[in-house]
Design goal:
The chain is an alpha/beta fold and 357 residues long. It folds into two domains: 174 residues, Glycogen Phosphorylase B (Rossmann fold), CATH 3.40.50.2000; 146 residues, Rossmann fold (3-Layer(aba) Sandwich), CATH 3.40.50. The chain has 15 helices and twelve strands. It has a six-stranded parallel sheet, sandwiched between helices. Strands 9-8-7-10-11-12 form a six-stranded parallel sheet, sandwiched between helices. The radius of gyration is 21 Å and the shape is globular. The termini are close together.
Length: 357
């Protein structure tokens, strides 16, 4: 059996949460079918450039095409798809491809993957910046096409499944939570320091920026900690959110090392959708995690066993005082156990196998 994997990302790149999820999806199919039977089409790699093609792409928005997709690229994908038993569409805003595949007579199975319910995320963006409002129509159209013309629909969380039912009136979605290949390196774990180091990991996506701003403005002055912020392009926030207790590290070459060396993992995120991949990484490395309900969304864990769930400034301050009152081992056994049982690469592989049945 052969699978055509359609993406807007480099399937081997892992510098953001979305990229790591795409990489997990790709590696799962490679494991099940053999790498030689999985071919990737990265739309951003094959999109046309130049002024004329830019104008054509803008016109394509009116036809329902999004994020670099165009009539010519769609036609190339349709032609290629006939040689494959499965087409996996790794973005719900490429849902128009599902419709065109069905319309063209494609007889294989179409699987659409929702990293988020993108129309809900786009509405959040539009509330912050009205410029994004025009994108809602295109995203909603593509997700509707994905829902109605895919043979299988995959989401990360039960919340996203409920969102699809509410918005697009389907209950067919299957849940495959985030999982990651194991990058944990066993080591001698020391005790937490004082003041403890709380590490935030994430790129400059709007929920991360909002969360950092909120935490600095509402918590940091009242918490005896050092805060580290690691992630692609996050160093650009250094001047905007300057604080003597906050260190903006930017992109970190050895992220597992940075996570291991931190005393606690911090995720004060209130917006977004899907699952927060960084929580999975923190579980993998056995960290104590202090995070919001939104950050823990989709994870079947007891927050008190891995750290604390906080949604207000007072709750964060109280949890930080409780956890940082006296030294404890940096390694949280329960976090690691949750990862191995539910969110390791092998834990979700059987769910991907079922997609191919």
């Amino acid at each position: 059996m052969k699978l055509l994997f359609i993406s807007i990302r480099d399937v081997n790149r892992k510098t953001s949460g979305g990229e790591k999820c795409t990489n997990r999806n790709y590696l799962s199919f490679c494991d099940l079918l053999g790498k030689e039977n999985v071919e990737v089409v990265n739309i951003l790699d094959i999109q046309e450039t130049g002024m004329l093609n830019t104008a054509i792409k803008r016109f394509g928005f009116l036809q329902g095409y999004y994020v670099g997709l165009s009539v010519s690229i769609k036609n190339r994908i349709l032609e290629k798809a006939y040689g494959f038993d499965y087409v996996f569409i790794d973005a719900s805003y490429l849902g128009i491809l599902a419709w065109h595949l069905k319309k063209s007579g494609y007889k294989g199975k179409i699987i659409s993957f929702f990293h988020n319910v993108e129309v809900s995320v786009m509405r959040q963006k539009a509330r912050l910046n009205p410029f994004h409002a025009w994108k809602i129509v295109s995203v909603r159209y593509n997700e509707k096409m994905a829902v109605h013309h895919s043979d299988r629909i995959v989401v990360l969380t039960s919340r996203d499944k409920e969102e699809l039912e509410r918005i697009y009136h389907t209950n067919r979605a299957e849940i495959i939570p985030i999982s990651l290949p194991d990058e944990y390196m066993p080591a001698e774990h020391g005790m937490t320091s004082y003041p403890p180091v709380f590490l935030f990991v994430g790129d400059n996506w709007f929920p991360n920026i909002h969360g950092i701003r909120w935490f600095i403005e509402n918590v940091l002055d009242n918490a005896d900690i050092r805060m580290q912020i690691a992630g692609r392009n996050m160093e650009h926030l250094r001047d905007k959110f300057a604080h003597p207790k906050a260190e903006f590290m930017g992109f970190v070459d050895d992220l597992p090392k940075a996570i291991a060396e931190a005393d606690y993992f911090l995720s004060p995120v209130f917006r977004g959708g899907g699952m927060k991949v960084k929580i999975c990484e923190a579980l993998m490395h056995g960290k104590h995690i202090i995070a919001t309900s939104e950050a823990f969304e989709g994870y079947e864990i007891d927050p008190m066993e891995v750290g604390a769930r906080c949604n207000t400034a007072g709750e964060f301050i109280t949890a930080i005082e409780r956890l940082g009152r006296e030294p404890r081992r940096k390694f949280n056994v329960k976090s690691r156990e949750y990862y191995l049982r539910n969110y390791s690469f092998g834990a979700t592989l059987e769910l991907f196998r079922k997609l191919l049945q």
